[in-house]
Amino acid sequence: MTGQLQVGFARRDITPSPGIDLSGFGFRFGANLGSLEPLEVDVLAVSEGDQTLLLLSFDLIGLTIEHLADLRARMAAETGVPGANQMWACTHTHGGPETGVLPSMGEKDPDYLDFVEEAAVAAAIEALGRMSTANLWLARGASYMGANRRSAAFRPGGPEDGHINDIDAAVVVAEFRNADRKPIVTLVNYSCHPTGSRESVSTSDYPGHMRRTISEVTGAPCLYVNGAGGDVNQRFDGAGYRSVSNARHHGIALGRTVLDLRSQLRQSSTSCADAASSSADLHYADPISQAEARRILAVGQRALEATTGTAQRLRIQAHQVDFARRVLDWQPSEGPDLTVDIQALRMGDLALVAIPSEFFSADGRALRAETRSPELMIAGWSNGLVGYTPTRRAMATGGYEVDDAHRWYGHHAAWAPVSGDNLREAALASISHLFGER
């Protein structure tokens, strides 16, 4: 039987002021000079019976697990929605401020983070106060706006890992509509890095352009959930080419794909709202040798003592010194190096699962193939961000995600491939709890 849910939506502007450090590009020089378009936090509230869920989507690079614990506690106190029913997703825009997840790329601004927290709580309270009856409609298509950035076609001289179209190409659309079938809010899930532009200005990148493209036609807001895009970038005219117009072009193209899919929307057969979580153990791979760490430490210290170069260059050298010290100080652990909760939300026939890493597209495709839910949205970079979780294939072929990225994230080594396997298994367990045991 087709069911109904109670749904509310609200949005707040979280655009940073000039002068705040941006995040996402290690060699971007200088702090934020202004904004190309607003950065936003979108909040969707969904209720059925005694269960209320909150889905929050931020135009941010990510949030730390430690910060998220405080955010969830405050949100629960202010709204009455328990932390287990709150999903904190990030679009992973590389045109947003540093939030503490990539400390080597800039300094987080505590006042800005307080501002974001206030905006999120205010939006959630407003969304909960604007609840109305709605039906859920779902559709799925595909887009190759994204490309496998580890392929030889995308990056000549790189790891040559697979074909350029080896991505999670799924475009999942969920639209909440009122009794007159007019849209209240549209949810979109796709998997791709928002790295179209690397100018020293804040930008929501392609997700913002996509949202506006959809809203101009539907008359309703659009919320974006970025997915399993750890190894996926927007396609460029040439290797490494980025521009403001590139981000706009791809955002509009993805928005048009979504608008075309609206003709295929089918109504959800259930009206359930629920949440579940399972734990996943993460393990580090072997670090570089102690001898190599001592060499990196010596080079970095000499560069810092010379006190030449730009402030950004000195920051990078200091980051290399810190990395070398982490390697030298590391002691192997008998158990997991980190345990994280993998949360799933159910909204009718739709499952949303939050993965706190840069989840690879192969893992995303596998998760979609094995899920028990009629439809699935993968929220990568969500409920925290611990870095890349490479697959076995990626670990064997190397490249940035394996060899370098963990240094920017403040780790002494990359996450071992078993970590991605465990994330996927925990996600399946959470979804299965909501949709029936496997």
Model description:
The radius of gyration is 21 Å and the shape is globular. It has 438 residues and is of the alpha+beta class. The chain is built from eleven helices and 17 strands. The model has no long low-confidence stretch (mean pLDDT 94). The two termini are 23 Å apart. The chain folds into two domains: 5-278 and 338-435, no CATH class; 290-329. Strands 1, 2, 3, 4, 5, 7, 8, 9 and 11 form a nine-stranded mixed β-sheet that branches. A four-stranded mixed β-sheet has the order 12-13-14-16, covered by helices on one side.
Mean pLDDT rating:
94
Rg:
21 Å
- Determine the N-to-C terminus distance: 23 Å
The amount of helix comes to 25-40%
Portion in strands: 15-25%
What is the element string, with H for helices and E for strands? EEEHEHEEEEHEEHEEHHEEEHEEHHHH
| Total number of strands | 17
Question: Can you tell me the overall shape?
Answer: globular
Q: Into how many domains do the coordinates divide?
A: 2
Largest sheet: 9 strands, mixed
- Low-pLDDT ranges: none
In terms of structural class, how would the helical and strand content be classed? Answer: alpha+beta
Oligomer: single chain
